Amino acid sequence: MTATSPAAAPHAATFTTHSPTTGKAIAEHPVNGPEEVSLAVARARTAQAGWAALPASRRRDHLLRWKKALATDLDAVARTIAEETGKPAGDAALEVVLTLEHLAWAARNAGRVLRRRKVRTGLFTLHQQASLVHRPLGVVGVIGPWNYPLYTSMGSIGYALAAGNGVVFKPSELTPGTGVLLAELFDAAVPEHAGLLTTVTGAASTGDALSRSGVDKLAFTGSPETARKVMAVCAETLTPFLAECGGKDAVIVTADADLDAAADAIVWGALSNAGQTCAGVERVYAVREIHGALCERVVTRAEALRPGAEADAAYGPMTLPGQVAIVERHVTDAVSAGGKALFGGPGSVCAPYVAPVVLAGVPEDAAAMTEETFGPVVAINPVADVDEAVERVNASRYALGAAVFCRNGRAGAAIAARLRAGVVSVNSVLGFAAVPALPFGGSQDSGFGRIHGEEGLRAFTAVQSTTVQRFTPPIALTSFDVPAVTRQRAVRLARSLHRRR
Questions:
Q1: Gap between the Cα atoms of 133 and 151, Å rounded
Q2: For residues 423 and 430, what is the distance between their CA atoms, to the nearest angstrom?
Q3: Which of 37, 129, 333, 480 is 20 to 30 A (C-alpha) from 69?
Q4: pTM for this predicted structure
Q5: Catalytic residue list
Q6: What is the chain's alpha carbon radius of gyration, rounded to the nearest angstrom?
Q7: Rounded distance between C-alpha atoms, residue 222 and residue 236, angstroms
Q8: Ordered domains of the chain (ranges, CATH)
Q9: What is the per-residue pLDDT across 194-208, written as a single tens digit (0 to 9) for each?
């Protein structure tokens, strides 16, 4: 068996990937069914036993060797990403660079974060030595997205491996080649642990098979609707589940903010990768006195950008064909409901591309303000003050990311603390994405659980608490031989101590 084919038998079914830009066929991949997925999980479980037995330093060295292989083949990896997603080559290369940063951090910090550590005991347990350790779960299933097929998926894959687990990865059916290449590079870099990371390919049926395969945890990235379905399957066997389900991220711009910096960040956050970013900017709330000036600056920058397949295009096509109709509906409904198209509009949609769209004054109950658009569209609404802006940001059923632009960083951080978002940037957008030590994730319809950082490493472990009795206690309360008078004295002592401040 190889990283690209978890079963030795020939596959009865295949599927073909196509370029979002040209529509031409890219490659053919097998549709892995329940039997093949089960074989992949069994193979990973066998490899994981040896992997978990290694000292953390050895796992670190192996993962850094894999990182080196990814860096050496960066051009090939980026080319595969660009071909499958349609994003510009430079954007694909940046995705690989960010992935390398996270893999390096996970490899180098897992030993420190997950090592056994002692904890303090209480008055009646002084005779016990207490400690806890984070143990690997076993085999982790990862269902990845298509918008950032390497970076987002590695937030689970790399951290799960660093924590001592094996991984079976099901990439999106739009970007399977990226997942196949990832596993091939792992096997080439760490041949003595081949099978520890296996990629299985297919659409929803393959994801369903992975959910039912007996993995010890499933990490999912996708829509809330799909997450609910996958979670329901996991619930049948009480399989732990981690979900990252996108967002409707907002930016707050205060009256004293640097408007040029805010406009530049908003345009990049809203339009990069054709707006197909889970933590991208979709809503902006600007204090009324600077709303008009901010809108002018955003429009000026948006006017200079265009999508296309050319090397100098700002961004590429919509990767998921069906998303084009959603973007068009959101823009059309927003304008029909009284919103104003400051730049672009319904006519900006020309599949597979969507030109930049800047809206203003969109009703808060419009789909463009409540549903994830996942396209190059941004709505900028005026608010009376920061309090109203915070209220509107928090009114969303999504709670993933947000940003605040404010002249004073400390004041901006205070505003950020009032937001329900799981990640917030002050005076930048997506600032957290390039900091591997920061956990990433949200709540409500944005999902639950965290990847990245120390929390991301611990997410793929089970905590084991241990006590070791060092000496026989003078008062042994966990014995039937304890005299009643001794228990009564212990109760009186505890009550006396805890009645104090």
A1: 28
A2: 9
A3: 37
A4: 0.95
A5: 244, 278
A6: 26
A7: 20
A8: 14-244 (3.40.605.10), 250-436 (3.40.309.10)
A9: 999 999 999 999 999
